[in-house]
Write a structure and sequence with these properties.
206 residues, alpha/beta, globular
């Protein structure tokens, strides 16, 4: 029903799951896991491999207010995810970095917690650093998904690249992810509401 809405009334967002595509169950790729579930819940178009973007892409339209979501899973390693994001940003005509939403893991939050961050520092996250470098701007919106933290700092790399345990995966799929999807949809609608009311991607930064 949304396909016939006026182009001018439809907001475009680029929704990106950061991670290592070839490591789908590792903690570092939880953003991709959540994006895949979001696509499934909202009946997005089938995922397609786009060689030019070096990414898997899909899209979906949401109504009330109207939003055209471009969904992206980079095929580059996490540290180079920004290359795919920058190409998609240009290809899909995204008008501002504030219309790019990054879903990513967060060591600073306990497992199961989720928060939102609008722009600013990468806080040590190499995927965010890559996106910031490739876009030349740190104004992206971010959904930070807690994965917990190992006891010792020297265990961090092995920890983020390790797979979730079976009990953790069960909790993610049955308990946490449904809440993440509600949270994400609320944020998307809030961004769209602001733009439809003001005509600006984010009036606080304009």
């Amino acid at each position: 029903r949304v396909l016939f809405r006026s182009f001018m009334s439809t907001m475009r967002l680029l929704l990106v799951g950061l991670g290592n595509f070839d490591m789908p169950l590792c903690r570092h790729s939880v953003g991709m896991l959540v994006l895949q579930q979001f696509a499934k819940e909202h009946r997005a178009a089938p995922w397609q491999t786009d060689k030019a973007l070096a990414a898997q892409r899909s899209e979906v339209y949401l109504g009330d207010p109207d939003v055209h979501l471009h969904l992206l899973q980079p095929l580059h390693p996490m540290n180079n995810n920004g290359k795919s994001v920058a190409k998609a940003y240009s290809r899909f005509g995204i008008s501002s970095p504030t219309r790019v939403v990054l879903l990513h893991d967060d060591l600073q939050k306990e497992f199961g917690k989720v928060t939102w961050k609008s722009g600013g520092s990468a806080l040590g996250h190499n995927g965010i650093r890559s996106v910031t470098s490739c876009l030349g701007c740190a104004d992206t919106e971010r959904m930070r998904i807690g994965i917990g933290r190992p006891e010792h700092k020297d265990q961090v790399v092995d920890f983020v690249l390790s797979n979730f345990t079976p009990p953790e995966l069960e909790r993610l799929r049955t308990e946490f992810v449904p809440n993440y999807l509600k949270f994400l949809l609320q944020k998307i609608r809030a961004l769209a509401d602001v733009e439809h009311r003001t005509g600006l991607p984010n009036p606080k930064r304009a």
